[in-house]
Amino acid sequence: MSNISRRDGVTKLVETGLSYAEIGRRLGITRERVRQIVKPKPEKKSGVMLTISDVTRLLGVHINTARRWSNQGIIRAYRIGPRRDRRYRREDVLCVLDKLKTTLG
Fold this sequence. Notes:
single chain, mainly alpha, Multidrug-efflux Transporter Regulator, Chain: A, Domain 2, 6 helices
């Protein structure tokens, strides 16, 4: 059974009021899989996350300056993954860029 037809079949069975366990028994899948099929996928955040090299190119600063600014709280950095890599929201970086432009000229 393809994913689209399975999703449609599960959706129709949920609308009839059957429990996830009963739907799973009828279709030969687990109730957890039924829940996953029914549950809507989370929407991605609208903000684009930038790497530190992206930030340095946008701001025209050295990578150590960008790191220092994030440590000082001038630019908000988000730590991700097991290596705790820095990621930055585009909106935050553009805000800092605007501040630099107004102070420098």
